[in-house]
Amino acid sequence: MIIDIGEFNKLQKDVKRIGVLNLDTIFDRVLEKFLWFLCFTRPKDKIVEQLFNPPNGFLVSLTNKAKLAYALGFIDKTVQSDLEQIHRIRNEFAHSAEADFANEEVIKYVRKLSTAKGKRVTKKESYKLYKKATNMCAENLSKVIEQKLSE
Asked: Quick check: helix, strand or coil at residue 125?
């Protein structure tokens, strides 16, 4: 297999791609720590750890962590759905060198974000709507965590 150095260098400098991957990881880790703190009273218990570990752990993905947080009443349906779309966008960027916010597959997921409801999503607006949704999710998670920690 030959590596296209030009393409490799381009991907390394793609700030939006790096941001998408990093934001997904941040949301994933925040939800994981939050769920551990509030739901699992047995730290380092092997059975609980298996829930979070590959290959078969139910809570390996951000999507499933968000579903559990929603089911437990920690986040609302809007945040859960937005986190799911954010993770799908992440997967596009992680698995396709061609992915960007002008890509039709990415735009399809952006259209499902709460910040895009009722709006015409263009290639130009796609990234802005994504960023707005990630900010909204971060604010919401921050409030929920603050509230739960003060209880």
From this structure: coil
- Give the model's pLDDT for residue 41: 66
Instruction: For the chain, give the mean pLDDT.
Output: 90
Question: Residue 42's pLDDT band (boundaries 50, 70, 90)?
Answer: low
Q: What is the CA radius of gyration of the chain?
A: 17
Domain spans of the chain, in order of start:
16-150
Q: How far apart are CA 135 and CA 145, in angstroms?
A: 15
CA atoms within 13 Å, Cβ hemisphere of 101: 21
How remote is the C-alpha of 43 from its chain's centroid?
25
Q: Residues for the chain: how many in total?
A: 151
Q: What is the CATH number of domain 16-150?
A: 1.20.120.330
Query: Which residue in the block uniquely carries the two structure tokens 């390996």?
Result: 60
